[in-house]
Amino acid sequence: MTARIPFLPMQLREDGAAVRAAVARVLDSGWFVLGPEVEHFEREFAAASGAAHAVGVGTGTDAIALIIRALGIGAGDEVITSPLSAAYSALAIQMAGATPVFADIDLARLTIDPAAAERAITPRTRAILPVHLYGQPADMAAIEAIARRHHLAIVEDCCQAHLATANGRPVGTIGAAGAFSFYPTKNLGALGDGGAVVTNDASLAARIRRLRNGGQDRRYEHLEFGVNTRLDEMQAAILRARLPLLRGWTATRRRLAAIYREQLAAAPVIVPPELDGGHVYHLFVVRAGDPPDARLRLRRHLESCGIETLVHYPVAIPSQPAFANLSPARCPYGEIACAQVISLPLHPGLDDGTVREVAAAVCTVR
Fold it and tell me: pTM of the entire structure?
């Protein structure tokens, strides 16, 4: 059955004319890899993100892995990260040759708990990778203090946090570098895969540019072992067409989220608090709470009302078979969140009345 209120329609909206013109421009140019569209987008996205440099890559996962590699972190090293995220956050650490170590979350913020991260530090720890999950920044002030005390790098996973700020500072510029994804469902999405690294470190940006292109310093001169992960011209042009709309889209997300918060104040769900005004609401997530079948009952109820929901994410990363060989420590709060979270529709194409209708349906679940 097609939902009357789908979770996220993917059709072009007010961006349609600009996106189609961008595609035509690239087709007419005949240049499809590492050309002027990528160069322009890198400058424009760096400026929008408050960073000195941006480097376009193939995916957000590759962005994380390349930052870690460019920092000289690899085999034998550990990187502490959150158990609640897309598994790609931790897979990227492994792609760089390092070992992910999971520190439990703050159950209110749903991002890594700084105290748990500090307890997870060992002599092999080289970095902390906070995930700005669902668009809410992690507690970066506390994480910075820990990193300074223990001489650790910070690599920010900003894949769900375009234009977010932490205590007024743009995410991605607080640590050594930040990784962004342009997967089509993101706040700034391409029409395929894409990613970027932002940083204020010119030498780090230069090394990531080299690593993304086979380790080449110039054509056919490979200075080091690199990979092939380049943002292509078509996706860069599409992102350039959409980037000017991002601030307006973000303002809409925040307005709709405020309506949800108001309307769900007495609902039988737990609404995670907005702990930083820089939250950009990639997703609007609530927790269904107890009993164990509460989420299933809520989703079925909303489905009967014609409302589509999703779950981000149902399995804590340490419980994924891909990480079983690491024998990761349990993260009880992460497991609670994974059993309870449910994402309600929220995107710039929604109107206020539809958000109120969804909230009203949540309030009537039994």
Answer: 0.97
